[in-house]
Amino acid sequence: MTDSKRPLRLTDRKREAILRAAVAEFRELGFAGTSMDRIAATAEVSKRTVYNHFASKDELFTAILWQLWEASQSLDALAYDPARPLREQLLGFVAQKLRLLSDTSFIDLSRVAMAELVHAPERARVMMDKLAEKEEGLTTWIRAAQADGRLRDDIAPADAAHQLQAMVKAFAFWPQIAMGAAPLDAGAQQRLMHDCVDMFLAVRARPERSARPLR
Asked: What is the pLDDT of residue 197?
């Protein structure tokens, strides 16, 4: 039996229950309005158990942000392949991104982080910067495609990456975070994925060299 299938120890189950409770309480009441007593009650554990796992509310909030960071690690690195169509490569990237953005746990964690970023930016800034680093893969990919002459180079790679990410998040992240919209279903994800990639390439792709088909 692999580690991933091994039943969690009681202490690990309690830790997960505490984290789930903390996410729910932080979402409802914010950082300042949430107490360790409420978290303990929601998790159905003693306050002492909460403190055995997390020495403070700040440490508990940091653990939630680390969960968000670890979730973002599920995105595979996007390596530029000069032999593959640009559209095919970008569709693969956006498909991965949409799988992450449709995960309800990721959305819940993001709501908590975003709320605290607004009310106490110093508390969440470092971790949010680390999450932004995970999107550097697309920037690197765009830089390579520009160097290969297949994307226009009249825009900074980071700005071009932000354009594509922003198109995706406008429909598959911000409505869910800010307005409680449901995650996009599979059909909507497919339409959004193709629309965003096609719009991006319509603006950013160069005509292919020689008689090579448009990618």
From this structure: 98
Torsion angle, alpha carbons of 156, 145, 94, 61, to 10: -50
Please tell me the distance from the alpha carbon of residue 93 to that of residue 78, in angstroms, as a whole number.
7
What tokens appear for 40 in the block? Answer: 């303990």
pLDDT of residue 112: 80
Q: Which amino acid is at 127?
A: M
Dihedral sign, CA of 6, 11, 16, 21? positive
Q: Residue 200: name the closest of 171, 144, 159, 172 by CA.
A: 159
- The region that residue 84 occupies, defined by phi over 0 for left and psi between -120 and 50 for alpha, beta otherwise, is beta
For residue 81, give both structure tokens. Answer: 């392949």
Tokens 């599979």 locate to: 186
Q: What parts of the chain have a pLDDT lower than 50?
A: 1-4, 210-215
Tell me whether residue 25 is exposed, middle or buried, using C-beta atoms within 10 angstroms of its C-beta: 0 to 12, 13 to 18, 19 or more.
buried
3-state secondary structure of 34: coil
And the tokens for 168? 């995706």
Backbone phi, psi, residue 205, to 5°: -80, 140
User: What is the rounded distance in angstroms from the CA atom of residue 194 to the CA atom of residue 188?
Assistant: 10
List Cβ neighbours of 107 (8 Å cut-off, separation of 6 or more): 101, 173, 176, 177, 183
Instruction: Please tell me the predicted confidence (pLDDT) of residue 36.
Output: 94
- Tens digits of per-residue pLDDT, 96-123? 999 888 888 788 878 887 777 777 677 6
